[in-house]
């Protein structure tokens, strides 16, 4: 299936969705955060076809979120490692998991609990804050930023 690129939008959200890709790409990123490195591990854990996995890994590499790394000296085996750009998505993936714990999985408790390696404490919910308090969409105003095009400035002015 051919995807329509969103890179023509002057919107960081649209362009980010374009970079991250689809649900399989997010699942691959999730597993990469959990330490999965090998093609066979991704395939087994996700139950994904080889063709789809290969396509999504290539996309994530092309976007600079993952990189291939030789496992042995003769480079017959490779693994996939998160780049700095990929690791920077960790709070996004955690926020999606936490949202799912609350709104999708139901009131039976989170299937996975992320804990701080040193203290053992559960990681706090990811929150958007302003001046020390949690902020929601009703308390946020959208304004044009320094990267806004004239079209984006007009759209913002209309909201």
Topology:
Blueprint: H1 12-20, H2 23-33, H3 39-46, H4 50-62, E1 66-70, E2 78-82, H5 84-87, H6 90-103, E3 129-130, E4 133-134, H7 150-157
Antiparallel strand pairs: 1-2, 3-4
Biggest sheet record: 2 strands, antiparallel
The chain-level structural class is mainly alpha
H/E element order:
HHHHEEHHEEH
Low-confidence stretches: none
What's the arrangement of strands in the largest beta sheet? Answer: 1-2
Q: What is the alpha-carbon Rg in Å?
A: 19 Å
Give the overall average pLDDT. 89
Query: Oligomer, anyone?
Result: single chain
How far do the termini sit from each other?
Answer: 34 Å
Q: Looking at the structure, what is the overall shape?
A: globular
The proportion of residues forming helix, as a percent range, comes to 40-55%
Write down how many β-strands occur, each being a DSSP E stretch of 2 or more residues.
4
């Amino acid at each position: 299936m051919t995807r329509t690129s969103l890179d023509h939008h002057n919107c960081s959200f649209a362009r980010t969705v374009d970079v991250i890709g689809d649900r399989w790409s997010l699942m691959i990123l999730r597993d990469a955060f959990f330490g999965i490195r090998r093609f066979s591990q991704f395939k087994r854990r996700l139950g994904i076809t080889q063709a789809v996995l290969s396509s999504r890994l290539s996309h994530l590499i092309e976007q600079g979120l993952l990189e291939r790394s030789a496992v042995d000296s003769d480079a017959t085996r490779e693994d996939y490692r998160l780049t700095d750009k990929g690791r920077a998505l960790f709070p996004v993936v955690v926020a999606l998991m936490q949202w799912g714990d609350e709104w999708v999985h139901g009131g039976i408790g989170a299937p996975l609990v992320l804990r701080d390696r040193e203290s053992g404490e559960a990681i706090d919910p990811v929150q958007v804050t302003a001046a020390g308090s949690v902020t929601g969409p009703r308390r946020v105003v959208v304004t044009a930023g320094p990267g806004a095009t004239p079209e984006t400035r007009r759209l913002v002015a209309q909201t």
